[in-house]
Amino acid sequence: MIKLYLLILLVLWSGMLQAQTKQRNASPKKVSNPSWVKNIPADDVVKWRHHIHQNPELSFEEENTGKYVEEVLKSFPNIEVVRPAKTSVVGILRGAKPGKTVAFRADMDALPMQEETGLPYSSKVENVMHSCGHDAHAAMLLGTAATLSKMQSQLKGTVYFIFQHAEETPPGGAVDIIKSGVLKDVDAFFGMHVLPDFPAGHVGILPDGAASTAQDVFHLTIIGKGSHGSMPHLGIDPIVAGAAIVSALQSVVSRNVTPGEMTVVTIGKFQSGDAFNVIADRAELAASIRTTSEPTRKQVEARIKEIIDNIIEAYGADYKLDYIPTYPAIQNDANLNAHARKSVVAILGKDQVFDAPMMTASEDFSYYREIAPVSFMTLGIGEGAANHNPKFAVDDSALPNGVKAQVQIILDYLNK
């Protein structure tokens, strides 16, 4: 009896293992597309991106880009277009029924670098390139606006499509748009950024809380006393003082910041002197500081200033310091994040949604939290060069999924 009982258990256990294996190996459940998906102008989204990519403009100079976006928006039904700042554009879609107000933001500015992709639609502007994907952001949001503009009779609430200028250059274009007051009634903000080295078309949900870093910058001029290289006792060497500062600043993260809290202090510039046998009279340093919480941000600023002041005094030099706080960290709202995840899973399937790691870069999208909660996410664009690289390129096949995700998030938010 015991042997028979064990044999039955073995057969049952084997059957359960086979069933679990089949379940694990089963193809992901296909998502049935809602009827509005057929309204996504996928070919136009690619065309819009290529046009913007070929005609890049730097921060605060996006006049032609803004005009182009405005013209495209005005070609859609039911979209009201406003210009809250000189080079930014906001499209407003008011649904047939009253309800909440939601905003989705894209940026439009390019970077000062020469493109090296060799693409047939490469930048026509020398030393200016869309190497961060803002062309893709703008094109996808145009696709989202085009799709939703045909659903006005079904919408409950209002949608703001924000085409923002100057994300790359502090103080950032978000500040101008917020000051204009056009967004004062928005209840929630969403944003999406393309990133390489994640599967094309897969959407990453960034963490609750700190989803990016705050960025601060300092420019330091050390004022010494020039002298002949053979007579150092007659001068005050700013290079030696600067070297001491660079070395001392390396202790800020390792000895002042709580272990495990992401903080970076990078000295990106140290320039001084023109001749091998001359002690220069000044040196220039510049740094980028990244933090994720306001208390640590203030702590690091205070410590950096203290180190600079004391070392300069010790070396008998003088200095001028310009410490510039720029963008705060994006603080993703947990409820909006959960909403975004649910919506994207519903339209793309669970297998195309992932937990994205916190971005160590900075984003002025963080300022919109002054008005309402925010949720920022990523869109994979396949393997390739990093953002801000002259070989950076976007896989166009990812763009339709970006539009699908944006439309579903907006529809679900207004209908919840």
From TrEMBL:
<dbReference type="GO" id="GO:0046872">
    <property type="term" value="F:metal ion binding"/>
</dbReference>
<dbReference type="InterPro" id="IPR017439">
    <property type="entry name" value="Amidohydrolase"/>
</dbReference>
<keyword id="KW-0378">Hydrolase</keyword>
<feature type="binding site">
    <location>
        <position position="193"/>
    </location>
    <ligand>
        <name>Mn(2+)</name>
    </ligand>
</feature>
<feature type="binding site">
    <location>
        <position position="132"/>
    </location>
    <ligand>
        <name>Mn(2+)</name>
    </ligand>
</feature>
<protein>
    <submittedName>
        <fullName>Amidohydrolase</fullName>
    </submittedName>
</protein>
<feature type="binding site">
    <location>
        <position position="134"/>
    </location>
    <ligand>
        <name>Mn(2+)</name>
    </ligand>
</feature>
<feature type="domain" description="Peptidase M20 dimerisation">
    <location>
        <begin position="218"/>
        <end position="312"/>
    </location>
</feature>
<dbReference type="GO" id="GO:0050118">
    <property type="term" value="F:N-acetyldiaminopimelate deacetylase activity"/>
</dbReference>
<dbReference type="Pfam" id="PF07687">
    <property type="entry name" value="M20_dimer"/>
</dbReference>
<keyword id="KW-0464">Manganese</keyword>
<dbReference type="InterPro" id="IPR002933">
    <property type="entry name" value="Peptidase_M20"/>
</dbReference>
<keyword id="KW-0732">Signal</keyword>
<dbReference type="InterPro" id="IPR011650">
    <property type="entry name" value="Peptidase_M20_dimer"/>
</dbReference>
<dbReference type="InterPro" id="IPR036264">
    <property type="entry name" value="Bact_exopeptidase_dim_dom"/>
</dbReference>
<keyword id="KW-0479">Metal-binding</keyword>
<dbReference type="GO" id="GO:0019877">
    <property type="term" value="P:diaminopimelate biosynthetic process"/>
</dbReference>
<feature type="binding site">
    <location>
        <position position="168"/>
    </location>
    <ligand>
        <name>Mn(2+)</name>
    </ligand>
</feature>
<feature type="signal peptide">
    <location>
        <begin position="1"/>
        <end position="19"/>
    </location>
</feature>
<dbReference type="Pfam" id="PF01546">
    <property type="entry name" value="Peptidase_M20"/>
</dbReference>
<feature type="binding site">
    <location>
        <position position="388"/>
    </location>
    <ligand>
        <name>Mn(2+)</name>
    </ligand>
</feature>
